[in-house]
């Protein structure tokens, strides 16, 4: 057989399989127009590349499989990995590879977010600062894509670059667009099959998205990512004076979508972080309410099939905070000791329901 024909043959087989599945399911369930939307694939942000004690790095694999998670989001810290230009920390090279392999062995697809900068690249000791030259970041992520591409499905370019916490010089859509434009071809050169994600936005900051488009970001990412954190229930909407939803409303990812479509950019949206914390402090909820909001938020997304992946932040409470009653310490589905919160059961039940959905089988075929 002519090996050049193989890609076309594989595509034909996938299309035929999907078509037969759709026809069969339509016969069973009725016309396609009355079917429920394909749901976002559920995933979690894990702490394994925050490098907790070794015993805690091994335990998540079994829990991930038990939970029904389909995706994990892991982070790689550039500042630790490349302490000097072109010099890669041998410990980091091996340690990150091990965690990526563990995620794969647990049946997970993998998103890797690459953020932080070494001082030589940023000119400051604040590791959250972006590099002065986007080409330095592009060269590094090109190396990562070539080194780890076999384990990674998507590369996320920075994290919450729309807030000063993670872009300390002040949010700068033009500077971020330049980073994105440098990174996109670098990732594709090292790992052509992976997707490139616009860095996950802190809340649904559609104004930042619009400014990034104005700076030329279009064409330099495959997926828009956002972090639709909210203090309110997932269905509740607040509005600006102009009628648009406030960025801190969970449903305002629809505003991000509207901003994209206004640019003629019909790309999917992934939630690379979202969740509610079980702190007793501001914006916190009870453990029972966390479970309820988890279920309701996933069900809400079903209305919008362009939301393809949603990774809950995070899989367990921050191990270094030991379940402290602080907002960032208690987003987990699990407590620090891996005991289950009610939200873990809600996540597992939702994932199990999806695994039995014939329409998600069709989505898997088409993927």
Describe the protein's architecture and organization.
This protein is an alpha/beta fold and 367 residues long. The protein has a single domain (38-359), classed as TIM Barrel (Alpha-Beta Barrel), CATH 3.20.20.80. It is 41% helix and 13% strand. It contains twelve helices and eight strands. It has helices at residues 6-29, 54-67, 78-81, 90-105, 119-122, 134-148, 173-190, 206-214, 253-262, 287-301, 342-355, 358-366; strands at 41-45, 71-77, 109-115, 154-159, 195-202, 224-227, 269-271, 307-312. Strand 7, helix 10 and strand 8 (307-312) form a beta-alpha-beta unit. The radius of gyration is 20 Å and the shape is globular. The chain starts with 5 loop residues before the first helix and ends with a helix. Residues 1-36 and 361-367 have low confidence and may be disordered.
H/I helix tally: 12
Average pLDDT level: 90
Query: Radius of gyration over alpha carbons?
Result: 20 Å
Q: Would you state the CATH class?
A: Alpha Beta
Gross CATH architecture: Alpha-Beta Barrel
Q: What topology, given as strand order, has the largest sheet? A: 1-2-3-4-5-6-7-8
**What is the number of independent domains?**
1
Task: Describe the oligomeric state of these chains in a short phrase.
Answer: single chain
CATH topology: TIM Barrel
Largest sheet: 8 strands, parallel, barrel
The level of helicity is: 40-55%
Tell me how many strands there are: 8
Q: Distance between the terminal alpha carbons, to the nearest Å?
A: 26 Å
**CATH superfamily descriptor:** Glycosidases
Q: Any idea what the shape is?
A: globular
Following the backbone from N to C, one meets helices and strands in this order, namely HEHEHHEHHEHEHEHEHEHH
Structural class: alpha/beta
Strand content: 5-15%
Please mark out the parts with pLDDT under 50 across 5 or more consecutive residues, or reply none: 1-36, 361-367
